[in-house]
Write a structure and sequence with these properties.
The chain has 375 residues and is of the alpha/beta class. The protein is built from nine helices and 18 strands. The strands form three sheets. Strands 1, 2, 8, 9, 10, 11, 17 and 18 form an eight-stranded mixed beta sheet that branches. The protein has a seven-stranded mixed beta sheet with strand order 6-5-13-14-15-12-16. A three-stranded antiparallel beta sheet has the order 3-7-4. The chain is globular, with a radius of gyration of 21 Å. It starts with a helix and ends with a helix. It binds flavin-adenine dinucleotide (FAD).
């Protein structure tokens, strides 16, 4: 017998707990970022009833991102959804005042996240998902029903939590991202075209790093640190900006400011239940951003697609659908994220009062150095 269907019938029989007024769908997706849009797309194109919601009125806005993606993401998203603003060839890592370490082959692309996120959401709607913006998931109730910010209730067989680092869906099943990195970023004029990302490693930025990411005639300049150090961020970003102005690389004018939290603890178990509802997590909600680099867009796209497909397979009665989803996520991200989380922890442990942080520890904490990749 199809497991998912039998389960659903039992749930219906015990339907006293389901609110009479609840909208019934097969899959509710919370969040229309890259993970949620991909999940909604994957489920809707298989023909199931999908409702996807986002608390933001306009998809992808405001942008809270430095907008760098690996070139390989083209394999998942055709032409990167027409959102590429410039390509990246290399990475220059600046360790304190040392000359930069040049990683000549570090192919990536700078994208316009508003364009990228909107294109992914559009694809989900075109595949048949019902998409609503300006409405938040307020809570997943103890009976598994989802309460929305407009007062309505949704009863879904599967709830996909793609609602970012502070996921409410994740919270409802006890899956919380911890620790977090906090980041702030400014966008400034770029004085000379540049085809590399610049990374600034410094004792002044525990649990994170500074960056300059070029995007045509502007650049994102930012810094991330461990949550406990977040009050330092405005000064750290201002210092890095001043340095880059002195070096004649960027202009003084600040065009935009943004920031946000990034999961830094590694993956959470992406499968859970809330009473009768199956809960799947994807993207930042599943802790899939890299604890060292902070990169999470590619993992969000991929894990969202897997979550949508797993929901469909489970509803169709594939007994192993959930275990397969867990395994795929673990195979794709487990080892890389475990290494990153361990490297970040080890580096943070080297912060003792005002004592200098050993250079070897800093090198072991960043992907450009062979020490990071050593066993
Ligand atoms: C400053 C900064 C810079 C970054 N730079 C990069 C970078 O250069 N490259 C990279 O790969 N990654 C970067 N990241 C990380 C990257 O942005 C995330 O990993 C990625 O966006 C995760 O996608 P997602 O779909 O899981 O979550 P999000 O993109 O966060 O999408 C979640 C969506 O859920 C919605 N939502 C939240 N709560 C609710 C709710 N209760 N109900 C309904 N909707 C809800 C939100 O409005 C949002 O649209 C950066 C992060 C920050 C903060």
């Amino acid at each position: 017998m199809l497991l998912g269907q039998a389960w659903w019938r039992r749930r219906r029989a015990a339907g006293a707990r389901l609110r009479m007024s609840a909208l019934e769908v097969d899959v509710l997706v919370a969040g229309l970022g890259p993970a949620g849009s991909r999940a909604a797309w994957a489920a809707a194109r298989a023909g199931v009833r999908v409702l996807a919601i986002d608390r933001r009125r306009r998809i992808g806005e405001p942008v809270q991102c430095a907008e760098l993606v690996p070139a390989l993401l083209r394999q998942e998203v055709d032409g990167l959804a027409g959102a590429v603003t410039q390509t990246i060839e290399a990475m220059h890592t600046h360790l304190e005042t040392e000359p930069p370490e040049v990683t000549a082959h570090f192919p990536g692309a700078m994208i316009e996240r508003t364009v990228f996120d909107a294109a992914l959401a559009r694809a989900a709607c075109e595949a048949g998902a019902r998409c609503r913006t300006g409405v938040a998931l307020a809570a997943v109730e103890a009976d598994g029903a989802a309460r929305l910010s407009d007062g309505s209730t949704v009863s879904a067989r599967v709830i996909i939590g793609a609602d970012g680092p502070h996921s409410r869906v994740g919270r409802s099943v006890g899956r919380l991202n911890s620790p977090l990195t906090h980041a702030q970023q400014i966008t400034v004029p770029l004085d000379r075209a540049h085809g590399a990302t610049d990374i600034f490693l410094s004792r002044a930025m525990p649990g994170g790093y500074g960056w300059l990411f070029p995007k045509g005639d502007v650049a994102h300049v930012g810094a991330g640190v461990a949550y406990s150090e977040r009050r330092r961020l405005p000064a750290l970003v201002a210092d890095l900006h001043a340095r880059l102005v002195r070096e004649g690389r960027v202009g003084t004018r600040v065009l935009r400011r943004t920031g946000g939290a990034i999961p830094a603890g590694g993956p959470l178990d992406p499968v859970a239940y809330r009473a009768g509802a199956l809960v799947l997590l994807a993207g930042d909600a599943a802790g899939l951003a890299n604890p060292v680099t902070g990169a999470g867009i590619a993992a969000a796209v991929q894990s969202g697609t897997l979550a949508g497909a797993a929901a469909v397979a489970w509803m169709a009665g594939a007994d192993d659908a959930l275990e397969r989803f867990r395994e795929e996520v673990e195979t794709l991200y487990g080892p890389a994220l475990a290494r990153a989380a361990a490297r970040r922890r080890a580096l943070l442990a080297c912060y003792r009062g005002d004592a200098p942080v050993p250079r070897a520890a800093q090198r072991a904490g960043w992907i450009a150095y062979p020490e990071y990749w050593a066993a």
